[in-house]
Amino acid sequence: MLEDIVIRRMSKSEVDRALDWAAAEGWNPGRYDAESFYAVDPKGFFIAERAGEPLGCVSAVAYDESFGYVGLFIVRPPYRGQGVGLRLLDVALRHVQARNVGLDAAIDLQQTYARHGFKFAYRNIRHRCVGDGEAPPDLTELTEVPFDEIVRYDQTVFPTSRPKFLSRWIAQPQSAALAVVKQGRLAGYGVLRACRDGYKIGPLFADDPQIADALFQGLCARAAGAAVFLDTPEANAAAIALAKRRQMTAVFDTARMYTEGTPPGRVDRCYGVTTFELG
Question: Where is the N-acetyltransferase domain (predicted)?
Fold first, then answer.
């Protein structure tokens, strides 16, 4: 019965468990994502329970007063079709109300989110290849770039500043983070992180296709012989072209949606989405 459901905030350890559920759904989360996620908004992770039994979860992180993001929306298989998801989503959206809220929806769930005010922006397409090759010259370890410069560049693409997230994201175990610096300024950066299956590259932000390609190759060289995934926004034709040029295979796609329309940002610099869970 719906009246028996309790929805409460998750602890950090419970976010780790939610990522295990995400792995079971085939979403292939990063092995160390929870710390970066939780740091953004510890109050933005919710779990539904009945008599102590976990039924499902959702995240709705408020980056600031203007932008939020919904993800990790999972109802465990035995409890689907019972209204649990709607209860979770209602609570999540109340947490980020009065903001422009984004999410990456499964294609067949677009109408569900549309009923909650979300509007389609563009598709994000996950591509796969196998890491190999050698890193090109003139790449810089991201640790050599001042952190304030990373945050500044990141915000030219992402809808808002996210220093709490980035400080952890770029320093995960089993990861690599590379940059291209031109004339003393950051011209692109990318992060490779360990996932349940292989590695993901994200974000991959760059001033132009040549810089994106160099960063992609440098990161692939750090994952030789392993699966590498890149989530490319269809709104940037150059990102799709990079995936094709690298002979990557499309795995699945999502619908990027927002409640107040696509926010400002240089989507032409986005060659790889950071994460479907937090944008």
Answer: 5-140, 137-279
Q: What angle is formed at CA 51 by the lines to CA 47 and CA 52, rounded to 5 degrees? A: 50
Task: For the chain, give percent helix, strand, coil, nearest 5.
Answer: 35, 35, 30
Per-residue pLDDT tens for 209-252?
Answer: 999 999 999 999 999 999 999 999 999 999 999 999 999 999 99
pLDDT digits (tens, 9 = 90+) for 22-34: 999 999 999 999 9
Both structure tokens of 78 = 């035995």
Residue 88 — φ and ψ, nearest 5°?
-60, -45
Please list, in sequence order, all residues whose beta carbon lies within 8 angstroms of the beta carbon of residue 68, skipping any fewer than 6 positions away: 44, 60, 61, 62, 95, 96, 99, 100, 101, 102
Q: Where are the beta strands (DSSP E) in 63-214?
A: 67-75, 100-106, 119-130, 140-141, 175-182, 185-194, 199-206
Kindly compute the dihedral angle of the four CA atoms of residues 226, 239, 124, 164, in this order, to the nearest 10 degrees: 80
In angstroms, rounded to a whole number, what is the distance separating the alpha carbons of residues 71 and 105? 9
Residue ranges and CATH numbers for the domains of the chain are: 2-122 (3.40.630.30), 126-272 (3.40.630.90)
Q: How far apart are CA 151 and CA 166, in angstroms?
A: 7
CA distances in angstroms from 25 to 47, 133, 248, 260, 264, listed in the order given: 17, 31, 22, 29, 32
Q: Is 188 in contact with 211 (CB distance < 8 Å)?
A: yes
8 A C-beta contact, residue 64 and residue 161: yes
What is the CB-side half-sphere exposure of residue 45 using CA atoms within 13 A? 22
Q: Compute the distance between CA of residue 252 and CA of residue 128 in angstroms, rounded to an integer.
A: 10
Pairing type for strands 53-62 and 45-50 reads antiparallel
The beta-strand segments (E) located in 107-263 are: 119-130, 140-141, 175-182, 185-194, 199-206, 227-233, 249-258
